[in-house]
Amino acid sequence: MAYTRGTSTNIIVGAAALFVADTTLTSGTLPAFVSTESYRETLSDDVDFTNIGYTMNGLELQFQPDFGEVQVDQLLDVAKLYKQGMQVNLATAFAEATLENLLLALAYSNDELTGTKSTSAGQTLNLSAGDIGECPVERGIVAVGPGTGDCEDSAYVERVYAAYRALSIENVTVSAKRDEPSMFEVSFRLLPEDTSASYGKIVDRTWAPAS
Question: Residue 160: which of 205, 197, 190 has the closest Cα?
Fold first, then answer.
């Protein structure tokens, strides 16, 4: 094979659309791909998914392996490394400071949000301290952004990031400042699902609109 400097179409630039499911996911419960539409449209038509809307600072997946060491007398360095743990985190910032997005950022149950903004009583998010033995709220997350590959005239490429079990575990700040937008920076800890022990999957796909 002849030498090439690289492939520019494999460079990804651009943000992703973020959707949160009301429940945890598995590979079998993800909505099926439709060859004639973007996965953003597929998720938008699914009542189990909520579109977060605008985000800031994009989407960041962080993989943190933990390795143990075996030291022996005859070496000044370690003789062997072995994997003993793993953490995966997903971080972003919700730029739309709605109570619905705050509920997701705080990992509250849907029951904590009542009313509607269009009424005189308004919409209320109950800032509950929780109770002993309360189960943490886990949700599924799917993001759809630019993918790798060469877009043809009649087709589009995209990358789908699916996290089966996500739990918000970091501090969430709610602010009202004169010179900064109100947004919710959120970090989700991803957990493996029971059957496959998988955190989720990343899919590069091509779709073509119906002619």
Answer: 205
Q: Assess contact for 160 and 144: CB atoms under 8 A.
A: yes
Whether 84 is covered by a domain: the verdict is yes
Residues in the chain predicted with pLDDT less than 70, given as ranges, are 152-154
Write out the DSSP string of 104-171. Answer: HHTT--GGGEES-TTSSS--EE------TTPPPP-EEEEEEEE-SSPPPTT-EEEEEEEEEEEEE-S-
What's the token pair of residue 31? 């909505």
Task: Specify the number of domains making up the chain.
Answer: 1
pLDDT at 130: 76
Q: Is residue 69 part of a domain?
A: yes
Residue 130 lies in a domain: no
The CATH number that applies at residue 80 is 2.30.110
